[in-house]
Design brief:
With 137 residues, the chain is mainly beta. It has one domain. Helices cover 4% and strands 43% of the residues. Strands 1, 2, 3, 6, 7, 8, 9 and 10 form an 8-stranded antiparallel β-sheet that branches.
Length: 137
C-alpha cells in the first residue's frame, strides 16, 4: 500500500438528530480521533516489569470548524445544533484511501467560540455509544 497523507478524505459524515446521513467534510477543517484500549495491570510480585492485558475498546472524536456556516444545509451547525438537547447516538463515518471507520457516537457537546479576531468556530466532541469495537474496513 502506498503511503497516504491526511489530505483527501473521501467521506466524513455524521447522522443528524433525525438519523439522516449528512456529509460535512466541507465544513470540518480539522479533527482528531482515537481508538484506545483499556488495560489492566496484572503484574505479580515475581515480576520486575509491568505485565498488562487488554480490556475494552473505545473510540473518541473531536470535529472542528473554523467558520460556522448557518446558511448551508447540511452544515456543521445543522448537524450538531441539537446536541445540547438530545442524547441520540449518531453514525459517524470516516473514509480515506478506501479504508472506512464507522462508529455509533454520542456527541457530548457543541461549543462555539468567537475569536478575538472576529472568527466564529465550533467544536463537537464525541465518544463511542454502542459497545461495538471500532474496526477499520
Amino acid at each position: 500500500m502506498a503511503k497516504q497523507s491526511g489530505m483527501g478524505w473521501t467521506t466524513l459524515s455524521v447522522d443528524d438528530s433525525a438519523g439522516a446521513v449528512e456529509a460535512i467534510k466541507t465544513d470540518v477543517q480539522s479533527f482528531q480521533f482515537a481508538t484506545p484500549r483499556a488495560v489492566l495491570d496484572v503484574t505479580g510480585v515475581d515480576k520486575s516489569a509491568i505485565e498488562r492485558i487488554l480490556l475494552l475498546a473505545d473510540f473518541n472524536i473531536t470535529l472542528n470548524t473554523t467558520a460556522v456556516n448557518f446558511a448551508a444545509t447540511p452544515s456543521f451547525f445543522d448537524v450538531f445544533k441539537t446536541v445540547p438537547s438530545t442524547s441520540v447516538a449518531r453514525t459517524t463515518t470516516l473514509v480515506i484511501a478506501s479504508k472506512t471507520l464507522a462508529c455509533e457516537v454520542l456527541y457530548t457537546d457543541f461549543s462555539m467560540n468567537r475569536g478575538q479576531d472576529g472568527s466564529l468556530g465550533a467544536t463537537a466532541p464525541g465518544v463511542l455509544a454502542d459497545g461495538t469495537v471500532p474496526t477499520w474496513a
